[in-house]
């Protein structure tokens, strides 16, 4: 039986509110769907968050072009006890990138730009890197540009701080080098899509918010969707973002960043259904634009990346999948399509921690996808032998990217030690292959005569190969040679390192003090607001510490140099160390 989705959503309201809303519902356009009012199989997937005491998620399942199931689980606002519904608005993080990509494609169809234009044509204030960076390489994350979100983090600018397009562009323009030559590697970087938003503004005279409203959201009837460039703006039906609080409960986790392009779309699952429909029955962009949006990137050697334009193409149980996920402060999101099966699943959540929207979406997919189309059932992987597991345990390092991993043996597998988090138990798949639980990341161990390497592969970058290294002998040793003030001119920021009670601390402006964890000789790791960093100290020929290099997943190592003397009023953590004051 065909139902109106607005009727279904109405009937989930409290009786008194239902009566009031019913008076205005007749003026709304009907949303045809075959939505069911309950599905115990689906509801069990979200049972842990289907309470008024926790944040949660909104879900929409689209099958054969109509909404099959739409429901909210958990609470949008814990202070006011507002439940999540399919109309609740969330920040969808990097799922936003496909809308930025479509905006660029529309301008190309208008004849106003070419995807092979060089970025300096529109943003001349960027440094000249000696190699061309095209809009196309940026759309596919092949540019080599350092991610500005990690740069903000390294400059001790918290997500709760207010930052603007000008702040981000100024920081990007200070970067003297790239992570790598454009086209050589695939590495996710938020800078690419932020700069593409700037291209839209400079070419059209409109912000990406206004351009996308006029060219994408309005034509599709996405009335609850916008690019959010004003953190003071009131957003009707917006869910608050939350994070687990130490000691129990939750705390608000929101951002005042106002940059657009790499994220910042606010929307509901029902509006995302309208966007999903555009893939099959294009209203915006037409069939050619939809095809281009899903065109995979090409590296310089001609090999394809898994990243198209704001979308990732991969396979799930052997079935083609088009997907993207989003992570930003207290929000998590997943948008996945199985075009051959005419199935789409949208999950938007308002909590970080153990909520994994992609994993939840895959569990929903397992309910809907025909078993006959799945891969042949995999043979149960043999239990890992204790000797084999022990041979893989240890520390691994990549000196170019500063990627660091430490594996510890468990009774039947390995666990990955993560800075600031509990160890992540890995699932043994056999033949030296392990996979992170609730993660797309795989770790493959390769044993040679005298060496063990590990290949780390996920959707955000090309595989990274790390080599086993000797673990640090500096645990509990004297860290005083590392103490001091250090400066990096590309960030325009100083770091103050101090030793207390035998531990090395990073003092940060607007952040709590942070303990640096020794992992290798002269190498430490620390926690970013999203992810981790590795820091390796540098020494002169006499063995004195002169500075350090620091790198993240999306920023290859930056050089900090030690200041000659303490700064006047060094207790002011925001004070920069002038270039003339540091040793070469």
Give your account of this protein's structure.
This protein is of the alpha+beta class and 584 residues long. It has 13 helices and 33 strands. Strand 15 and strand 16 (331-338) form a beta hairpin. Helix 4 (97-109) runs parallel beside helix 8 and helix 4 crosses helix 11 (286-293). The model is unreliable at 6-32, 571-575 and 579-584 (pLDDT under 50).
Secondary structure layout:
Layout: E1 3-4, H1 5-11, H2 15-25, E2 32-33, H3 40-45, E3 57-63, E4 66-73, E5 75-77, E6 82-83, E7 90-91, H4 97-109, H5 135-139, H6 148-154, E8 162-163, H7 165-173, H8 190-204, H9 208-220, E9 226-227, E10 242-244, E11 250-252, E12 256-257, E13 265-267, H10 269-280, H11 286-293, E14 312-316, E15 319-328, E16 331-338, E17 343-349, H12 357-368, H13 386-392, E18 394-398, E19 403-409, E20 414-417, E21 424-430, E22 433-436, E23 442-447, E24 452-458, E25 461-469, E26 484-488, E27 493-500, E28 503-507, E29 514-520, E30 523-527, E31 532-539, E32 545-552, E33 558-562
Parallel strand pairs: 8-12
Antiparallel strand pairs: 1-2, 3-4, 3-17, 5-6, 7-13, 9-13, 10-11, 14-15, 15-16, 16-17, 18-19, 18-25, 19-20, 20-21, 21-22, 22-23, 23-24, 24-25, 26-27, 26-33, 27-28, 28-29, 29-30, 30-31, 31-32, 32-33
Helix pairs in contact: 1-2, 4-8, 4-9, 4-11
């Amino acid at each position: 039986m065909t139902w109106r989705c607005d009727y279904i959503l109405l009937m989930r309201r409290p009786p008194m509110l239902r009566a009031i809303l019913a008076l205005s519902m007749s003026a709304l356009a009907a949303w045809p769907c075959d939505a069911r009012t309950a599905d115990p199989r689906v509801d069990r997937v979200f049972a842990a968050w289907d309470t008024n005491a926790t944040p949660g998620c909104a879900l929409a399942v689209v099958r054969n072009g109509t909404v099959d199931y739409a429901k909210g689980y958990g609470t949008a606002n814990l202070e006011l006890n507002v439940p999540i519904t399919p109309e609740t608005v969330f920040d969808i993080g990097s799922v936003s990138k496909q809308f930025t990509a479509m905006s660029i494609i529309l301008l190309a169809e208008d004849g106003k730009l070419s995807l092979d234009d060089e970025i300096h044509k529109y943003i001349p204030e960027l440094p000249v890197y000696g190699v061309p960076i095209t809009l196309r390489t940026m759309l596919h994350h092949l540019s080599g540009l350092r991610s500005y979100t990690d740069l903000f983090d390294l400059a001790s600018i918290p997500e709760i701080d207010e930052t603007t397009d000008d702040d981000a562009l100024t920081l990007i323009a200070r970067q003297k080098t790239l992570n790598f030559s454009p086209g050589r590697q695939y590495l996710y970087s938020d800078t690419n899509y932020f700069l593409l938003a700037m291209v839209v503004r400079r070419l059209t005279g409109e912000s990406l918010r206004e351009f996308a409203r006029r060219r994408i959201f309005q034509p599709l009837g996405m009335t609850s969707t916008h690019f959010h460039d004003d953190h003071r703006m009131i957003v009707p039906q917006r869910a608050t973002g939350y994070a687990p609080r130490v000691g129990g409960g939750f705390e608000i986790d929101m951002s005042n960043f106002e940059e657009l392009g790499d994220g910042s779309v606010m929307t509901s699952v029902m509006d995302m259904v309208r966007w999903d429909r555009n893939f099959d029955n294009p209203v915006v962009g037409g069939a050619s634009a939809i095809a281009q949006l899903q065109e995979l990137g090409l590296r310089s050697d001609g090999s394809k990346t898994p990243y198209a334009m704001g979308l990732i193409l991969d396979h799930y149980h052997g079935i083609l999948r088009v997907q993207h996920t989003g992570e930003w402060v207290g929000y998590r999101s997943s948008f996945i399509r199985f075009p051959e099966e005419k199935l789409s699943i949208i999950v938007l959540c308002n909590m970080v921690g153990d909520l994994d929207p992609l994993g939840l979406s895959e569990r929903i997919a397992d309910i809907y996808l025909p078993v006959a189309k799945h891969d042949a059932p995999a043979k149960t992987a043999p239990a890992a032998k204790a000797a084999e597991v022990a041979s893989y345990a240890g520390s691994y390092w990549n000196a170019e990217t500063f990627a660091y991993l430490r594996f510890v043996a468990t009774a039947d597998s390995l666990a990955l030690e993560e800075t600031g988090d509990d160890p992540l138990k890995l699932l043994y798949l056999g033949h030296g292959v392990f996979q992170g639980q609730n993660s797309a990341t795989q770790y493959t161990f390769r044993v040679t005569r005298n060496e063990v390497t590990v290949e780390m592969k996920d959707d955000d970058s090309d595989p990274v190969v790390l080599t086993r290294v000797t673990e640090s002998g500096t645990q509990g040793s004297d860290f005083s040679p590392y103490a001091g003030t250090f400066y990096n001119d590309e960030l325009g920021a100083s770091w103050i390192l101090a030793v207390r009670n035998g531990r090395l601390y990073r003092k940060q402006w607007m952040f709590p003090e942070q303990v640096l964890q020794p992992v290798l000789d002269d190498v430490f790791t620390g926690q970013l607001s999203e992810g981790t960093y590795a820091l390796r100290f540098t020494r002169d020929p006499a063995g004195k510490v002169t500075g350090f290099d620091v790198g993240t997943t999306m920023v290859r190592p930056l050089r900090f140099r030690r200041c000659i003397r303490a700064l006047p009023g060094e207790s002011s953590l925001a004070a920069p160390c002038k270039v003339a004051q540091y040793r070469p």
